[in-house]
Amino acid sequence: MDKNISRRSFLKGAAASVAGVAAMGLVGSPILASAEENWDLETEVLVVGGGGTGVSAAAEAAAAGAKVLVLEKSGIVGGTSNLSGGVMQAAGTKYQKEFTKYQDDTPENHAAVWIKEGEGLVDEDLVKDLANGAPGHIDWLADTCGLKWTSIYGHCHIPYVEDEIMADRIHVYEGGGASGGGVIYVQAVWKYAQEQGAEMQMNTEVKKLVQDETGTVVGVVAEQDGKEIRVKASKGVILCTASVDQNREMAKRLSPQQYYDQDNGVCLSVATDTGDGIRMGMEIGADIAGFGGCIDFCGKTGFGTDNRTPNFPSFIVNQNGFRFVCEDTTYAYHYRAIYQQCVALNGHTYMIFGKSSITKSQAVASGYAPWSSEEAADAEVEAGTLFKGETIEELAEAIGVPAANLKAQLDLWNSYGETGEDTQFGRLTGVEPITGPFYAYQNVAFNLGALGGLKINVDTEVIDVNGNVIPHLYAAGLNAGGWIGPYYPGSGTAIIGTVHWGRKAGAKAAAN
Fold this sequence. Notes:
Helix content is 36%, strand content 20%. The chain has helices spanning 3-23, 52-63, 94-99, 107-117, 124-143, 182-195, 248-254, 256-264, 276-283, 331-345, 355-359, 362-365, 374-383, 392-399, 403-419, 493-510, and strands at 31-32, 41-48, 68-71, 88-89, 149-153, 170-173, 199-201, 204-211, 217-224, 227-239, 266-267, 288-289, 294-298, 315-317, 350-354, 387-389, 438-442, 445-450, 453-455, 461-463, 469-475, 480-481. Mean pLDDT is 93; it is low at 1-16.
C-alpha cells in the first residue's frame, strides 16, 4: 500500500475519532514520536492494565520469549476480575464429559448460542474464535497454571434459544464460583507470567499512546509518582483496561444502561475501570464496537444466575402493574428488560410475591429462597427494603401502581400456577399460585461493568474508523467490543474472554 495513502487514512480516522472523544469532554490528540525520542523505559510488549486480561496477555507474550512489562493503574493485580466468581464457559472439554450428561457438546453449538444471544449485533468471527479456543484455555489453566476444575453447571434458558444447542458449560475451579473467587485464577496466571519473566509496575496510569510517522504505535505516555514517563514498546501495546464502567461521561455517550446503573444500581467494578484504553484508542482513530448492554444481575436474590435452582414463585411488573419478561431467564436478559421498562415509563419495576412463596414453594423445599420466613420478610418491611400489603390492592397502593392492573396480573399468574404452564412468557420454574399477604421488592441492578470497547479482528488488532489495522496496537477482554451482544450472555463468558483475547493478543504482539 502507498504509505502516503495509508498515512492520510490514519490521519482521517484519527481526526474523526478525536472529534468523538472531544464530544465527551475528553479532548485529546495523537502524539508522534520524534526520531530522537528519549524513553524512560523500554520493553518489547507493553500491557496496559493488570486485570485478568492483562495477566493472560503478559503470560502468553512472555512464554513466547518477549520482554514484557505490565503497567497497572492501581496498587493491586486483578482489577474487576478479582470480584468475579472466576467461572468460565467452554464446550467439548474432558471436564464437561466427566461432570455432566453432555457427552457430545461442541464449540459450534456453543458459538451458536452466543450468536443467538447476540441478536444480530455481534461479530460472528470473533464469537466463533472464542468458542473454538475456549476448550484449550481450560486445559492450559489446569495443566500450566495449576487450576483444578471441580464442577460444571449451566446458565438459565432464553426464550428464543433452542434447547438442542444449550448445555452445561460453566466450568468451576476449586475455590471459585462465588464473588471473589476470581482472585485464584488471576494469581495463578500472574504467577506463571512472572515465571516466564513478565514484570509489572503498579500505580502507573497510562495516559496516551505514542505513534511514529507511519501510524505505528511505538509506546505510551504514563504518569508514575506524579511524574510523566515515556515507555517504548518495540513489538506492540496491548490495551487491557476494561470498558467504561466507572466513567459517567463516556457511559452516558456510549452505554446508556451502564450510565443508568451508576445512579440507580450498585456498580461493583473497581474504581479504575474508567475506559482509559477506549479513550486512548479513539484519540488515534480507533473504531468502537459492541456498546449497548452491561453485566447486570439481582444481588438480592441471585435469580437467573444458573440452572441448578428453581426460581422463587414471583413475577416482575412495571410501573403500570403489568408483567413484561420471563423472570427465570439468564439474569442479564431480564435485567435488560427491567432497564428498558424503567426508562420507558420513568419509574421502577417490582418483584411481586406472597406469603405462600416463602412458606410452601418448591424453592423453599429445595433449600433455596431469598427470604427464609415470613418474619424475615416482615423485618425487611420494617427496615424499608420491602413493601407489604394484606391484599394485592393494598400492595399496589404501597408501590404506586394501578390496583386493577396488578390484581389482573396476579389473577393471570395464578391461572398459570394452577396448570404449571406460563403461556405468556414461557417461564419454566416457580410457576405456582401466589397467595397473601403480598410483598414487593423494588428491583435494583448489581452491575459488573459495561459491554463494548475498541473494534478488533480475530488477531486482536485494533481497527480504525476506516477499517484499517492500527499497527502494533491490540485490545483484549472487555476493552475490546463486538464479541458480546446487547446483554451479557451468561456467567463465565467474560472470564473465558479475558483468557482467550488476552492470550491471543500476547502471542500476536510477541510475534512482531
